[in-house]
Design brief:
Bound molecules: magnesium ion
Strand content: 25-35%
Number of domains: 1
Structural class: alpha+beta
Radius of gyration: 17 Å
Largest sheet: 5 strands, antiparallel
CATH class: Alpha Beta
Shape: globular
Order of helices and strands: EEHHEEEEEHHEEEEEEEEEE
Strand order of the largest sheet: 10-9-11-16-17
Distance between the termini: 29 Å
Length: about 270
């Protein structure tokens, strides 16, 4: 039996958090490899296959291929999500060739010894336009704001408001169609972890941060509109105006005094 908070959110023991860190460390190893590989001329399929080889060799299984299980045969078709430029999330690896100036979001989730790790980064390839580079830096900063402000006893809205304010005051859109999530033995557990505050929104439910909660925080910020649409492949999410989008994610445990990032490679 898992311990849970009053709202039913599962709480992890220190031992379970350490097992999640092992999974998170492997995800970081994959993302570091993606960084090394992501050069002009490489295909997204080559990257995706290298990611698969790396986590499989470590005894893990991927969490994305075939997800979700309830749409049998129609789940996500690749091992990682690779989302280039205007693609927000859930891009499918294929014969697309990476070009100088691209920004390449890579999201990787693995299951190791029964515990999940989930993280994403956006890789800047060569000469990225200054406005797009600034978008990436700002989105990474939004994730850092969350890490610095996660404290037990705080409501999530206090953290999310700081994230949203920084992004929007910098002139960027905050994607609302996709949000972060609790993570543990399952990739997606309660609670939903939005990067904005809108208590009328159906994705929005307040929760209080408690020691032992583990959440995947994953801001997605855009150069133009925050509105998105899904392409005909049923997965790839793009910005409605086709302007660039950046995505960074960490799996984070709430401790007695703050945040413990489980996917930073320590
Ligand atoms: Mg992810
Ligand atoms: Mg996630």
């Amino acid at each position: 039996m898992h311990r849970r908070d009053k709202g039913g959110i599962k709480l992890k023991s220190p031992d379970e958090v350490e097992r999640m860190r092992a999974s998170g460390r492997l995800v970081r190893k994959v993302l570091n490899l993606m960084h090394e590989m992501c050069k002009p001329g490489v295909t997204t399929l080559e990257m995706d296959e290298a990611a698969y080889e790396t986590y499989t060799a470590a005894g893990a299984t991927g969490l994305f291929k075939g997800y979700p299980e309830y749409i049998e045969g129609k789940g996500f078709p690749a091992n990682t999500c690779i989302s280039v430029n205007e693609e927000v999330v859930h891009g499918i690896a294929g014969d697309r060739v990476i070009q100088d100036g691209d920004i390449v979001g890579v999201d990787c989730g693995v299951l190791l010894d029964g515990w999940c790790g989930d993280a994403a980064t956006t890789i800047l390839v060569g000469n990225v336009k200054p406005d797009v580079k600034k978008l990436c830096e700002a989105t990474q900063h939004v994730l850092n704001i969350a890490i610095e402000n996660i404290k037990p006893g705080r409501k999530w809205s206090q953290v999310a408001r700081l994230m949203q304010n920084y992004a929007e005051r910098s002139g960027y859109g905050v994607v609302r169609d996709f949000v972060g999530h609790g993570v543990g033995t399952q990739l997606h557990e309660d609670p939903k972890v939005p990067n904005y505050v809108d208590k009328r929104d159906s994705n929005w439910k307040e929760f209080t941060l408690r020691p032992g909660m583990v959440i995947a925080v994953e801001p997605m910020c855009t150069l133009g509109t925050a509105q998105t649409e899904v392409l005909a492949d049923n997965w790839t999410v793009v910005t409605l105006d086709r302007k660039a989008s950046a995505h960074y994610e960490h799996t984070i445990a709430v401790t007695e005094d703050g945040a413990d990032v489980l996917t930073d490679g320590r």
